[in-house]
């Protein structure tokens, strides 16, 4: 069994989980493994396969983790030979035969990048502190069970962004994005801190008072912890990650500059 760390830009994909007629991250990984003859065309997935999490459409990752029975020659560098540039394996670890990438993860960490140049970081931190700890988060998900979670939330100012960090053993559907919406509302002054108490109450919020799901694009899976695994980074693979995402960053800066020029010229 071998586990791989995978980074990807989630914006071109319809989520992580494989779907029959649209591009997904998992489908892209499977296509690469089939091209490498790691498993056959008639098989649904590689033997022993599991992933750390199923990110939503548009959500990106630094440390998504997938594991399966892999040949010894399959390194991150070899994996990348059949992957598109915006999906990159960059580290691997040998794992026990019974390892499961989903169930054996003890902690997952996400960051949500809130564009909020005028928002109050102190109010955001107060909201994050109240949301931290063990609560029944049934008002922050569409899931009907598994809503009691113990999470750690913190906020840092980074230029025009508030960076919300959310860590825990696992999260129900849409949880982090809805939590980000609550923090953003409090930080921007659209809601008071009593909004947090309302969200955490045992009462189910009526539709008109419900918590909307924030956009997926600012969300990144940045960490998945496995106490018994030691990941070996592949320097060549990591350099390709820097090159690919460095190019994408420059493209974004150019697009932003052109947008500024148009706005300034109106």
UniProtKB/TrEMBL annotation:
- Binding residues annotated for substrate, in chain numbering: 110
Q: Which SUPFAM superfamilies match?
A: Pseudouridine synthase
What does the entry give for GO biological process? tRNA pseudouridine synthesis
User: According to its UniProt record, what is one Pfam family this protein matches?
Assistant: PseudoU_synth_1
Q: Which residues form the active site?
A: 56
Q: What is its EC number?
A: 5.4.99.12
For this protein, the record's InterPro entries field holds: PsdUridine_synth_cat_dom_sf, PsdUridine_synth_TruA, PsdUridine_synth_TruA_a/b_dom, PsdUridine_synth_TruA_C, TruA/RsuA/RluB/E/F_N
Q: Does the keyword tRNA processing apply?
A: yes
The residue ranges of the Pseudouridine synthase I TruA alpha/beta domain are 127-227
User: Which keywords does this Swiss-Prot/TrEMBL entry list?
Assistant: Isomerase, tRNA processing
Tell me which domain of life the UniProt entry assigns to the organism this sequence originates from: Archaea
GO function term, MF aspect, one: tRNA pseudouridine(38-40) synthase activity
Q: Which reaction does it catalyse?
A: uridine(38/39/40) in tRNA = pseudouridine(38/39/40) in tRNA
Q: Does the keyword DNA damage apply?
A: no
Query: Which family does the similarity line name?
Result: Belongs to the tRNA pseudouridine synthase TruA family.
The record's listing under NCBIfam families reads: PRK00021.3-3
Function according to Swiss-Prot or TrEMBL: Formation of pseudouridine at positions 38, 39 and 40 in the anticodon stem and loop of transfer RNAs.
Q: Tell me which PANTHER family the record gives.
A: PSEUDOURIDYLATE SYNTHASE, TRNA PSEUDOURIDINE SYNTHASE-LIKE 1
Record protein name field: tRNA pseudouridine synthase A
Coding gene?
truA
């Amino acid at each position: 069994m071998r586990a791989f760390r995978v980074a990807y830009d989630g914006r071109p994909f319809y989520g992580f989980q494989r779907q029959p007629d649209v591009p997904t991250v998992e489908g892209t990984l499977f296509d690469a493994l089939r091209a490498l003859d790691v498993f056959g065309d008639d098989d649904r997935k590689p033997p022993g396969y599991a992933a750390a999490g199923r990110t939503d459409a548009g959500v990106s990752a630094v440390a998504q983790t997938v594991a399966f029975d892999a040949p010894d020659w399959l390194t991150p560098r070899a994996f990348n030979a059949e992957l598109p540039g915006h999906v990159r394996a960059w580290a691997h670890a040998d794992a026990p035969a019974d390892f499961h990438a989903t169930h054996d993860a003890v902690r997952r960490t996400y960051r949500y990048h809130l564009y909020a140049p005028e928002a109050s970081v102190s109010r955001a931190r107060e909201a994050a502190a109240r949301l931290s700890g063990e609560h029944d988060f049934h008002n922050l998900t569409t899931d009907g069970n598994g809503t009691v979670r113990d999470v750690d939330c913190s906020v840092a100012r980074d230029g025009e962004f508030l960076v919300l960090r959310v860590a825990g053993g696992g999260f129900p559907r849409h949880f982090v994005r809805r939590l980000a919406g609550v923090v953003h509302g409090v930080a921007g002054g659209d809601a008071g801190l009593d909004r947090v108490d309302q969200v955490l109450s045992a009462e189910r919020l009526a539709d008109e008072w419900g918590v909307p799901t924030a956009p997926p694009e600012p969300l990144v899976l940045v960490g998945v912890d496995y106490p018994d695994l030691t990941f070996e980074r592949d320097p060549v693979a990591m350099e390709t990650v820097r090159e690919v995402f460095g190019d994408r960053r420059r493209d974004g800066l150019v697009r932003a500059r052109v947008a500024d020029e148009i706005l300034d010229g109106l």
